[in-house]
Amino acid sequence: AVVSTQSTGESDGEVLTEKFEVEKTDMLREGHPIHAVPYSKFKPDSWEFTDGARIEAAFRKYFQRAHYSQKEESHEIIVCHANVIRYLICRASQNPPEGWLRMSLANGSITEIGIDPNGKVFISGIGDKGHMPADMVTFT
Is the C or the N end of the chain the one with fewer CB within 10 Å? Predict the structure, then answer.
């Protein structure tokens, strides 16, 4: 499992330490990955210039097709933040990454992205929150 070092990511990732080896990384910290299209009033303090390259580097590190010699299925659990997840969804699905703000994700929701060894990408869930009681679902 890979977990953001930002406090919310670390606290959410703590439950994983009981069953998985956990790597903590700054690459998955929240940020503003790229200028959003269509235009958005969401304008954090120059995040896109400092965070965009870091978040893109996380995509390139964690989203790869399996080596042709790999025989068994592998899985990676990534615990991070909504802006990062939305950007990763856009990049993995080969949609323009500038569309990252067109999605809304609940805090603590689950997104599942698969990559076959031949490189075929499939997304079987985006922002699933069915595991949480309705009164506990929040958005920030």
Answer: C
φ, ψ at 65 (rounded to 5°): -75, 155
CA nearest to 1, candidates 25, 29, 21: 21
Question: What b/e readout covers 27-54, taking b as 16+ CB neighbours within 10 angstroms?
Answer: bbbbbbbbebeeeeeeeeeebbeebbeb
Look at residues 52, 49, 54, 50 and name the one whose alpha carbon lies nearest to residue 26. 54
C-alpha to C-alpha distance for 100 and 85, rounded to whole angstroms: 9
Can the peptide bond before residue 38 be classed as cis, meaning omega within 30 degrees of 0? yes
pTM (2 d.p.): 0.90
For 83-103, what is each residue's pLDDT tens digit? 999 999 999 999 999 999 999
Q: What is the dihedral of CA 95, 107, 128, 79, to 10 degrees?
A: 70
Retrieve residue 131's tokens: 């595991």
| Helices and strands (DSSP H and E) totals, the chain | 3, 5
User: DSSP character for 117?
Assistant: T
Q: How many residues does the chain have?
A: 140
